[in-house]
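Why show two proteins at once? Because comparison is the fastest way to build intuition. When a single record is shown, students tend to memorize it. When two are placed side by side, the eye starts asking what differs. So, the first record is below.
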Amino acid sequence: MLWKYWHTNWLMWPFCTLMMVTGLSGKRHLMQFTVSMNDFTAEGNTMYKPILFNTQMVRAILKGQKTQTRRIAKVLNGLESRTDGLAPEHFAFFIAPLSGLLYWKDIERQVKIDGKLVRPPYDPGDILWVRETWDRPSRGPFYYKADGDRRAKRPGRNPWKPSIHMPKEAARIFLRVTNVRIQRLQEISGKDVLAEGVDNGESNPTMGMRWENMQRIAFSELWDGTVDPSEIEKYGWRGNPWVWVIEFECCDRPSDWLSKGGSK
């Protein structure tokens, strides 16, 4: 199956690096390849995808303070993993539960579990349209909670509508994905906490490790506040789950995005 995937995608060859992987028994071998991060985002093939942010994070994006987001990589959590001498921020091994094979994964791009290719929710080059808390009274203009409540004051005013229900035509914030990687949640650095739009407000980078720790504490509190209480042990800060790290930059609204792509 791996050969078929590699063979049929011959255009990838110049960007690929082959690597041999040995299974737990030492008898099985798989060929995998890594793919350059600047590959295959040709013009005309851009994917438009929605992404949800809470009001606090929308405000951070609007202020230019947030350029990263972390999303739980549920398919990878619960699998046994090890680094086997390679730098953990670059490579990892996952032992697939069904086959018992040890799969090598390119931590920057993709993983194969039980013969199934697992990809991140977003890829470099994708355009994300932000779903945020919103309202549209009586088919008038759209309002956004992140801007404060600018709606006309009137009796019986409707509550804010949840971001999950925001339609495409209401989108005003667009993000271009610049990089995707994966790491354990607790591996986040103090600088990456800043890129997440979070600052502990009581220290600065010159304080060294103390600043790093205070940054992580601030981020851990924010993270745990977004996790379902029933899953806090598994996906909360202490659970230290695998997460996709999505890096992005703000971009203009694509002229063709409503007609060409994106989810409703």
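Second record. Ask yourself what differs from the first in the token line.
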Amino acid sequence: MQLTETELLIRTFSEEEYEKIASQFDDKISIHTVEGIQMIKRTEIYYIESLRNYLEVHRAEQGFIVRMPLYKMEELLGQDFIRISRSYLINFKHLKAVETDLIYGMLARCGDFKVPLSRNYLKNLYKRMEEDK
């Protein structure tokens, strides 16, 4: 049985339950890559790296390149993604740890990837970690 958004809103008992169910419908997004359009799930993305006018989207299997500013991608992906530096967005659901490194300084570990973390964005990350406890 296929429900519309209005029917879903009527049948749910709380706003949290509605948000949880609605996010499952909204999980797949279409992204215009250099090779063409790809349909991917938000949960497949580990992090996004900005390379001047292009973005490199990193997933477990393979990454791809998108021509789009980082702030537009941040708006498209929503609340699950958090900016950790001027050049990086991470999927908060894949965040395992925040580490220090002698060479790179602060790092966010997303899956098996280590992503550089800026001190300017550290407060936002810690705030988000406190909210999700």
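One difference worth noting in the second protein: The longest helix spans residues 119-131.
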